[in-house]
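Please discuss these two lines.
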Amino acid sequence: MPSTESFHERTHALWDELADFEASQADEALHHLMKRLCELVGAQNACWVGAVRLSGDFSGDPVKGWRPRVVRFLHPSPLLDEGVREQMAKLEQGVADITTIRNAEGAGIFRANRLRDIVAPEWFETPYYQAYYRDLGKADAIWVSFPINEDAESLFGIYSTLDRPPFTEAERDISAYTLRGIKWFHRQIMLSHCLLVAGSPLTPVERQVLHGLLSGLTEKEIAIAQNQSYHTTHEYVSAIYRKFGVNNRATLMALWLGKAS
């Protein structure tokens, strides 16, 4: 693990690197951040979760209406994706592991926890840990949660391999420091998936069109790049504006610059 001085230098350099990504490069910036997080604490893999709290009566819901809407891994795999789908399906059935419940209980405040910070030692013998950690090559995790507003949170999970010791308190605190200092980035990555202004994320095609808009391309240029008719592209642009609650590209860009609500 780097010295305190080296760690701060590397973290501040990382913040500068993230700021250099263009507005249309949200996915590339996210991948870069997760890679650097793993390097800082000697981790194997990382994921980002965009979570929202649904409206309605969730009195019987163990996580009070919170749902992951987008999950992205640094190193994705079919097994990891299948594990996410299984856990999402269980949430809809009102079934949640204690780690998920404990994380949801802290919603609204910034928090960083290792697994052992929120569960008893016997949890590491449960079928859940076996299925969603050990069977997937993960031994330990650090979860850092950043509230964007009362109904949206940006969460990062950082995973270790089975052949390394559990994460230390210092490694947890390094992860927390690195992620707490970039509120603007959490907001941008949530915006890039339309998770701050709509109940569901953008479709893959809508995200491609959005990238074109943020890159300054005209609708005609976007249509050519996407191999679409101009009419189809214009419909996608109109749908994107509706989801973000804006009427034009200037206001859309203002959202990324933090100059519009």
